[in-house]
Design brief:
The complex is a heterodimer of chains A (378) and B (145). With 378 residues, chain A is an alpha/beta fold. Chain A contains 13 helices and eleven strands. Classes of the chains: A alpha/beta (378), B mainly beta (145).
């Protein structure tokens, strides 16, 4: 079976915000319609549907898409990159002509609600969580705290580097009218924010919200006739190196992104030095640090100094998370990085455009599993 | 909601009961493959090294080194509200390189925590039914005796 070249031709968001009151289906519908409009396609053109969040089949039927030749509901997996890669693979193998990938995410209960028993996260212990919950370990912020603690030990990074990172991301968000957090943030303000799971601070966490994102994949050939400049999928990689118990990983500073990046570069002639902009998951900021190193975009252990030197800032040698990252645009679980990479390669990012961007990488997740996609402009 | 919230309920399975029985008896037990000797944590029905199904909980030394720690400042469950702040840690057990256990650190000031430091197991009863293995320094154990 000969693989076909795949392009991203449409991207869209729902009305993203804090406790929007809209359902999963509502967010899916808004995002899908926005992506179709962006591409200049109709629902009848879509014959594949993949999602994390909700039901891909339900969304497709609700929107009047064609009978599906491909569909997937993702369970626990590396964020949006999983439905995205599966959509791209369906098109590459000819199972689908035009496939829509969704990430629909509803805002989760706050720590304050959980602490009062207003919602129960740890009510019953499963076979694995019984080794976590009795120790007061319930939240991803805690494995992220472990990971960040070990990363500070293993690398050249300092907490001040994390402060600079947060400040730069916010600087980018001020140039993005769709970001939820747009007030400039100084490194001192980051350092003054409370710890959640020390050394992890509040501003190391992505910003909780309701979000719906949709991205349309089709063949390169089909893409030529559509509304937007085609953005081509050059390489993909989807890795797993451990079961889902982040807390007992043996090397927390070199996790799945390291393996994933190695695989990604093995599928392409492009090299890390060819990348013009990187959109790297920041569910917790330490994840972006790991990806910078894993992808070979900076030296091992040097992401902190690399950021402090200004390389990742717009105007720097490698602008990173140019939409402001999920810390500022809200928790879109990786889809924002795909959409921002696509828009950068189309050249439609206005004040935050990376001039002449031709190659972009976006990547999701950390720890047990990870996924990445390398994109090129047409 | 009550004034004295209960700790998270642990429902041991045939695979995990040895761990909780051991903790109540003041013994840290880790699953070990009886065919190849490999320790496995978290417990699984099969050995990931030799595929033997002959696995059993065995007492280990309780010695470990500190791999990573995080000081929890926000509670995500009512029981832990009164315990804030508390340290969650990943420790590497002495028995086998890469044999990691997630636990709590007790009896050591945060400022004295050092990655790689030697630790020993001790036990804390959270309720009449539930005892957990936690880690501290040998000096701290000596001081409390």
């Amino acid at each position: 079976m000969k693989a076909r070249r795949v392009a991203i031709v449409g991207v869209g968001y729902s009305q993203v915000g804090r406790h929007t009151g809209l359902s999963e289906r509502h967010h899916a519908a808004q995002a899908a319609i926005a992506a179709l409009d962006d591409a200049g396609l109709t629902a009848a053109d879509i014959d594949g549907s993949t999602t994390w969040g909700g039901d891909a089949i339900d969304f497709a039927y609700m929107l009047g898409m064609s009978p599906l030749r491909w569909h997937l509901n993702v369970g626990v997996s590396p964020a949006f990159v999983t439905p995205a890669i599966h959509a791209a693979m369906a098109v590459a193998t000819g199972q689908s002509e035009t496939c829509m990938a969704f990430r629909i995410m509803m805002q989760q209960p706050s720590s304050a609600t959980l602490a009062t028993g207003g919602a129960m996260l740890g009510a019953t212990s499963s076979e694995d969580t019984q080794f976590l919950y009795p120790f007061g370990n319930f939240s991803p912020t805690q494995w992220a705290g472990l990971m960040m603690n070990r990363y500070l030990y293993d690398s050249d990074a300092t907490e001040e580097h994390f402060a600079t990172f947060a400040s730069i991301q916010r600087e980018h968000a001020t140039l993005n009218e769709n970001a939820l957090q747009r007030t400039p943030l100084s490194p001192a303000e980051y350092l003054a924010a409370p710890y959640i799971s020390k050394p992890l601070r509040l501003l190391d966490c992505d910003y909780p919200c309701d979000s719906g994102s949709a991205v349309i994949f089709t063949t390169e050939e089909r893409a030529r006739d559509l509304r937007q400049p085609a953005v081509l999928v050059d390489a993909v990689s989807l890795s797993a190196v451990h079961d889902m118990n982040f807390e007992v990983m043996t090397d927390m500073s070199h996790t799945a992104p390291a393996h994933c990046a190695e695989q990604l570069w093995s599928h392409t002639d492009l090299r890390p030095t060819d990348v013009d902009t990187a959109q790297l998951y920041d569910g917790f900021s330490v994840i972006t640090f790991q990806w910078l190193e894993a992808l070979g975009l900076c030296e091992p252990g040097s992401a902190g100094p690399f950021i402090a030197e200004g390389h990742t800032r717009l105007g720097g040698s490698l602008p990173v998370n140019t939409d402001g990252g999920a810390c500022n645009v809200g928790r879109r679980h990786g889809a924002n990085f795909c959409i921002e990479a696509t828009r950068q390669l189309r050249g439609e990012c206005g004040d935050r455009q990376v001039p002449g961007a031709e190659v972009a990488v976006w990547a999701n997740a950390v720890g047990p599993f990870a996924g990445a996609m390398l994109l090129t402009g047409a | 909601m009550t004034d004295n919230p209960s700790p998270p309920a642990v429902v041991p399975t045939s695979l995990t009961a040895f761990f909780w029985e051991g903790a109540r008896a003041g013994e840290l037990r880790i699953q070990r493959c009886q065919a190849c000797g490999m320790y496995i944590h978290l417990p699984r029905p099969v050995c990931r090294s030799c595929h033997s199904f002959d696995l059993r909980g065995e007492a280990v030394s309780g010695r470990a080194t500190l791999y990573a720690h995080t000081v929890t400042m926000k509670a995500f469950h009512p029981f832990f509200v009164s315990r804030l702040p508390y340290a969650v840690a990943t420790v590497e057990l002495a028995e086998q390189p890469g044999l990691m256990l997630m636990t709590n650190l007790v009896g050591v000031a945060e400022a004295d925590l050092r990655t790689g430091m030697d630790l020993v197991v001790t036990f804390e009863a959270l309720s009449p039914e539930l005892t957990i293995p936690v880690f501290t320094t040998a000096a701290s154990i000596g001081a409390s005796r």
